[in-house]
Amino acid sequence: MNFLAFGVAGWICLVGFYGAIVSKNLIHLALCLTVIQSSTYVLLLSIGYRKHGTAPIFKGVKLGTTAVDPVVQSLTLTDIVISVTVIALILALALDAHKKSGTIDPDQLADFHG
Amino acid sequence: MTRRGIRAAVAVPTLGVLGVVLFWGLSGLPPFGNYHGIYGFLINHRALPQRHTTNAVTATVFDYRGFDTMGEEFILFAAVTGVVLLLRKGSEESDEAESEDQEPPEDDVRSDALRLFGMLALAAGALVALWLIAYGLVTPGGGFQGGVALASAFGLLYLTVGYRPWTRRTKEAALDPLEGVGASGYVVIGLAALISGLPFLTNLLGPGKPGTLWSGGSLSFINWAVAMEVAAANLILYKEFLEEYIVPLARRGG
User: Fold this and answer.
1) How far apart (Å, rounded) are the C-alpha atoms in residues A44 and A37?
2) Is B75 on the interface with A (CB under 8 A)?
3) pLDDT, mean of residues A68-78
4) Is residue B68 part of a domain?
């Protein structure tokens, strides 16, 4: 049970990589990248967890109460928002590739010379 | 064997090795729930006395690693700029007939109940988003989360009322400057400290009163700048992708 959270993070990462490698579709490929990225969120948040810890917000909570690590939370929250825009950029590139070559299959795109 | 087949055949052993290394590394971490990172511990104990902010996460984002967040904010800005460059250029290239007089499709929602519900949900969503932003330094929330929530609330305008009211109310001429002001606001707040002879991003406005809207000093301004940037950036993205989807649909007479 102690290892479960870390194991889940590792598993999500590997599954994402496999999906990205065998992908037949650029949109699917972009989603696989978000899956890989999500594994880092699970890992960060589970590293920062402390037993019986509350959220690191001390409104109405005595200072010094055991709380989970705020640093990993702040890394995760900014990254979630930014990853959305980066994925949007990747999807826009996929759209552009489709307009120019008529396909979103990475294998067929490799044969396309624009 | 197809290329995909070859890739899969290479991927399985490679990922197997990666998996072994990964799990070996993960097994060396402190056991789940027993992490005692010194930075998190220090921030949890010092953020309130030092910065007068009850939300240690927001204090970390905008203060203790504020410089880092500024860089991240510009990743966001650059990504949105890239999307706009790719998609807006595309719509100019591909058509001749499309100009100012091009009519967006008529997809106005006719159900009054749905429109009413949509507007109420939009108002409620926007209110929650503003609350998340305003109290970001006090209770859970902050510019990043609130900005996304605000943009999503406006997305309801398209979903429950129609495309035309959505385009009329989300104009590029308004969103682009908002995004720019939000992004540069962060830098300006940092430079203001520099000009007054203090290190970049020093909290000029004092820590304020803990647990109130006026806590965190400059941090609350950074918070609002980020919220503006994130909300405008997300709305620009929705707008560009919706246009990409709707305009060809309209041309086909759909």
Assistant:
1) 11
2) yes
3) 93
4) yes
